[in-house]
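ARCHIVE CARD
CATEGORY: sequence design from structure
SOURCE FIELD: tokenized fold
FIELD CONTENT:
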């Protein structure tokens, strides 16, 4: 009987922890006739907000109820509960309403309209949570977060920046090191897999990126090795997406953001 009671207690504690997180979808008006949909997970005791941007074409195809139509395998998206368990409000950004078909965010990430959309997201989350706002991008998402952070002033921009699997060279568009990174003054963490074989993420080019981030109030490069690599080297389940080492990467980023 004692064993049964202990098991039930553990289950109830687990259910209680699960129910402590609230998940909601918000549609923010950003430009005339345009809304920006964001899926937000809010834990019971939040410490900061992570606004997350996927790679590739940047689309999640979120339904009004928050179902993911695309991007489920992306590193940031598939680890969303791990981030919430660390005490972060997790805000996953979809393509805006006027970019809900191909090419989605492709060719859009470095535009004034994208900056306007994300400025509205930051303002809304800052007002509703009263917490520090960090932009977190992976792969092509790093082009979004770096460009937006460089374009916004201190009052409108994020409190910090995390770049994972950064686009370091790109023959088709402006890479992150080619942006006006000297305008970025907020704390900036760069996270990369040393064995990332994606052609636009060559780790040999990381020193150039770090040198451009010299005005950040705090900056660090953290690299990882190992894990599992499967399929296209530029996709989410290769080393590029930290496959097999997700908890270690999440823990390291979480500790840095929270100053631990």
């Amino acid at each position: 009987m004692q064993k049964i009671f202990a098991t039930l207690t553990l289950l109830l504690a687990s259910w209680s922890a699960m129910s402590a997180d609230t998940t909601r979808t918000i549609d923010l008006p950003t430009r005339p006739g345009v809304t920006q949909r964001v899926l937000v997970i809010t834990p019971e005791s939040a410490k900061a907000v992570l606004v997350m941007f996927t790679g590739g074409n940047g689309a999640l195809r979120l339904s009004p109820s928050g179902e993911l139509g695309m991007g489920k395998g992306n590193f940031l998206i598939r680890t969303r509960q791990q981030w919430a368990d660390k005490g972060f409000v997790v805000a996953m950004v979809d393509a805006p309403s006027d970019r809900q078909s191909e090419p989605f965010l492709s060719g859009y990430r470095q535009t004034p309209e994208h900056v306007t959309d994300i400025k509205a997201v930051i303002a809304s989350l800052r007002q509703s949570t009263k917490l520090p706002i960090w932009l977190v991008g992976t792969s092509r998402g790093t082009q979004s977060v770096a460009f937006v952070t460089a374009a916004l002033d201190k009052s409108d921009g994020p409190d910090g920046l995390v770049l994972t699997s950064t686009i370091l060279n790109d023959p088709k568009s402006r890479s992150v090191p080619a942006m006006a990174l000297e305008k970025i003054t907020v704390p900036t963490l760069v996270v990369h897999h040393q064995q990332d074989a994606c052609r636009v993420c060559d780790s040999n080019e990381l020193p150039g990126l770090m040198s451009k981030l010299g005005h950040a109030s705090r900056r660090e490069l953290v690299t990882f090795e190992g894990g599992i690599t499967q399929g296209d080297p530029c996709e989410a389940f290769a080393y590029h997406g930290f496959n097999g080492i997700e908890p270690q990467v999440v823990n390291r980023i979480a500790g840095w953001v929270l100053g631990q």
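CARD ANNOTATION: The domain at 22-257 is CATH 3.40.50.1820 (Rossmann fold). The chain has one domain: 22-257.
SHELF: design records, drawer C
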